[in-house]
Write a structure and sequence with these properties.
The protein is α/β, with parallel strands linked by helices and 120 residues long. The protein has one domain. It contains 4 helices and 5 strands. Strands 2-1-3-4-5 form a 5-stranded parallel beta sheet, with helices on both faces. Helix 1 packs across helix 4. It is globular, with a radius of gyration of 13 Å.
Length: 120
C-alpha cells in the first residue's frame, strides 16, 4: 500500500514511515499539493494509487462517497479520529498506527476506509 498524508499531518510522520520501508509521502513535502482543494487532493491520491491519511473525516468521507457514486473511485482513506492526539509528542504513535493499517492491507484499500487503531 502507498499513502499520502493530508496537509495537517507532519511530514515527519512520512519520514518515519519511509524509514520503516513504507511508501508514504506528505502534502507538506510536495509544494504543488499545499493548499489544494480536498476534491483535487483525493483525485491526486487516486491517480498515484495512494490512500489518503487524514483527520478531516467529515469532508473526505463525503467526497469519497460522491466519487464512488460517480464510479470514479479512490485509493482509500485512512481516518484519524479526533480523539487521537496529533501533537509533536504523538508523531511516533501516529506513525505506528498508520504503519499497522498499511501492513494489514499491503495490497491497498481502494474504495474503502480504515480507521487508525486506538493507541495502546
Amino acid at each position: 500500500m502507498r499513502a499520502l498524508l493530508d496537509e495537517q499531518l507532519s511530514y515527519e510522520i512520512a519520514v518515519l514511515l519511509r524509514g520503516r520501508g513504507l511508501d508514504v509521502e506528505a502534502v507538506g513535502e510536495r509544494a504543488e499539493l499545499i493548499g489544494l482543494e480536498d476534491e483535487r487532493l483525493l483525485q491526486v491520491a487516486a491517480d498515484e494509487s495512494r490512500a489518503l491519511v487524514t483527520n478531516n473525516i467529515r469532508d473526505f468521507k463525503l467526497i469519497a462517497a460522491q466519487r464512488l457514486a460517480r464510479d470514479q473511485g479512490h485509493a482509500g482513506l485512512i481516518l484519524i479520529p479526533s480523539s487521537r492526539p496529533r501533537s509533536r509528542a504523538a508523531i511516533g504513535a501516529l506513525a505506528d498506527g498508520i504503519e499497522a493499517v498499511m501492513r494489514a492491507d499491503p495490497n491497498g484499500i481502494a474504495g474503502s476506509e480504515r480507521w487508525l487503531p486506538d493507541p495502546t
